Amino acid sequence: MKKIIITAAIVLAILIGCKSKGNSDDSKKLNLAFESKSNSNVTGTATFTEKKGMVTFVAKLTGLKPGIHAIHIHEKSDCTAADGSSAGGHWNPTFKKHGKWGVEEHHKGDIGNFTADKKGNGTITLTTDEWCIGCEDETKNILGKGLIVHQGADDFTSQPAGNAGARVSCSAIIK
Ligand SMILES: [Cu+2]
Ligand SMILES: [Zn+2]
């Protein structure tokens, strides 16, 4: 009887050990910082958090002109150019047309528009199972791409990028 209890205790310890390890592997988080581009004063932070196959994106920007601004994931994590052009075009690993997320055909990087208030502050969030942080599926993996905030709004129609104007802030999506 004693032996059975000890065996059961060992099995339980192994199960708990595996479970806690599994949980820590399942939850991934990136903390990113935006840098100003195109002579703007737009800065801010962004996080990507992955839990149970869902990625939640949160960005907080300051220094914007009040009004509507586009934000996208572009194809490169290179923010070196003064005008942000080094980040390339929209991230589009599935070869779709540019458009509005969740409504019609769209790029994997077409996060959309958000509004900056009178003080120039704006936030945007998006939760999706169409992205992952560092998985093998290159149609989902956001690592190695770049976030771009634009001077103007995305019209969701113009190809290939929604005619959103200058790139006013940039952040590499890297660990
Ligand atoms: Cu863009
Ligand atoms: Zn696009």
Automatic annotation (TrEMBL):
CDD domains: Cu-Zn_Superoxide_Dismutase. InterPro entries: SOD-like_Cu/Zn_dom_sf, SOD_Cu/Zn_/chaperone, SOD_Cu/Zn_BS, SOD_Cu_Zn_dom. It comes from the Bacteria. One of its GO terms (molecular function) is superoxide dismutase activity. Signal peptide: none annotated. Keywords: Copper, Metal-binding, Oxidoreductase, Zinc. Residues 42-173 form the Superoxide dismutase copper/zinc binding domain. Binds 1 copper ion per subunit. Its EC number is 1.15.1.1. It catalyses: 2 superoxide + 2 H(+) = H2O2 + O2. Its cofactor is Cu cation; Zn(2+). Destroys radicals which are normally produced within the cells and which are toxic to biological systems. Belongs to the Cu-Zn superoxide dismutase family. This is Superoxide dismutase [Cu-Zn]. It comes from Flavobacterium alvei.
